[in-house]
Amino acid sequence: MRIVITTCTVNYQGRLASHLPKAQRLIMVKADGSISIHADDRAYKPLNWMNPPCLIHETTENDEIVWSVSNKQGELLVITMHEVHHEVSAELGDDPGLQKDGVEAHLQELLATHVETLGEGFELVRREFPTPIGPVDLLCKDKDGYIAVEVKRRGEIDGVEQLTRYLDALNLDPQLTPVRGMFVAQEIKPQALTLAEHRNIRCLSVDYDELRGMTDPQARLF
Amino acid sequence: MRIVITTCTVNYQGRLASHLPKAQRLIMVKADGSISIHADDRAYKPLNWMNPPCLIHETTENDEIVWSVSNKQGELLVITMHEVHHEVSAELGDDPGLQKDGVEAHLQELLATHVETLGEGFELVRREFPTPIGPVDLLCKDKDGYIAVEVKRRGEIDGVEQLTRYLDALNLDPQLTPVRGMFVAQEIKPQALTLAEHRNIRCLSVDYDELRGMTDPQARLF
DNA sequence: CTGTTCATCTCGTAA
DNA sequence: TTACGAGGTGAACAG
Would you tell me which residues have their CB within 7 A of strand C? Predict the structure, then answer.
């Protein structure tokens, strides 16, 4: 990792064209060759960046240091440093990586082992049930037939569209039809709820922690 | 802006839960109070972060510095620094900001002034034509009636769904119906193309630079 | 404020 | 390699 605090101008030509006027910024060069340019606000997003793999070529023109960063896709990032105020290097080494808990996959897992919470007499047929246009999160069955369940952390309109496409595909199969739809999320947006109801898709909000408690009452990863 | 290179462990509890084992990392505190934690790879994304506005509370426990970062939503980021290897501060000042050229809005603008490239005899009725569920990018007209045009930089399946919803809404209006659909993008994914054709939506790939050339042959912002 | 949509989205994963 | 969906998506803009 190399950190340079510098007064610079930046031009990017690639997926779009962009320009940063002369100002003081922080440039971060990482061990994988990637580069990012940060202003003094916004935690998340750099002003400009180049993802690895990329090549940094340094030249000097009229007392100005110029970095030309290019990648295989033909994108080009040119940083002209008018003045360098500070510079540090440090070897951080490999990172053991981020452990996550509470993403959609976990919710799907928990629901798969507790399909009875989705509806009376529900039985799991398969997780990730394949269709020609992609897998349905859960395929369940009760006394009236099959139910395709779409699981989301946050239920929005896109999820309802996705489930609708799956239902269309599944209902082409005479072995399965009629297949009902069910939309399950920790939180369902009003728009999504309205669209789902309009399409006769049942909606259910579930609580992740509560669901986890059913499997393992004292579970808490961290 | 404050930069700290430190051996640390990090815990986040908020929209999900996550944990970073002890390792050397770079912590960036920006002038707006936001904070991000970087490993030595990936240009774009920090391992962990907290967006402004947030509050940083520093304590010391057994020779370890602990930063508790919280926000109004009740999210909590706890950084425990076991060792600090380097530290810098710098006032960067306000950034003049990034100027962009080539985003979807520009493409829509160009197409609006050249609707004849979309189809013979096409005339523009309105950009951002309002419907109950949101504005259609372009509403055009030819001798056979109205055409709703959805403009995307990259045409994917979501865009086709969006256009379909607009068409459904527009065709409820007896003054307009029948409204045909048209999907225009610099690049259209095969899946989107298939779905669009299946719904009788015409697809067109356009070249941004070529289109811009029609308006202003020597135009080139940077 | 909410809701909607774009993004140089990034990033993982599975076919 | 490509395609697809999730994301602590973030960020901008309209209502």
Answer: A 12, 14-16, 18, 47-51, 75, 77, 157, 189-191; B 42-45, 98, 100, 103-105, 133-134, 152-154, 159, 162
Q: Looking at the complex, does the CB of residue B44 fall below 8 Å from at least one CB of chain A?
A: yes
More confident residue, B207 or A179: A179
Q: Do B41 and A31 touch (CB under 8 A)?
A: yes
Count of structural domains, chain A: 2
Tell me, what CATH number does A18's domain have?
2.70.180.20
Domain assignment of residue A98, yes or no = no
Instruction: Please state the rounded mean pLDDT for residues A29-57.
Output: 96
- Nearest CB among A92, A99, A161 relative to B40 is that of A92
Tell me what percent of chain B is helix, strand and coil, each rounded to the nearest 5.
20, 45, 35
B129 lies in a domain?
yes
Q: How far is B98 from chain A (nearest CA, A)?
A: 5
State the average pLDDT over residues B192-214.
87
Is the pLDDT higher at B11 or at B222? B11
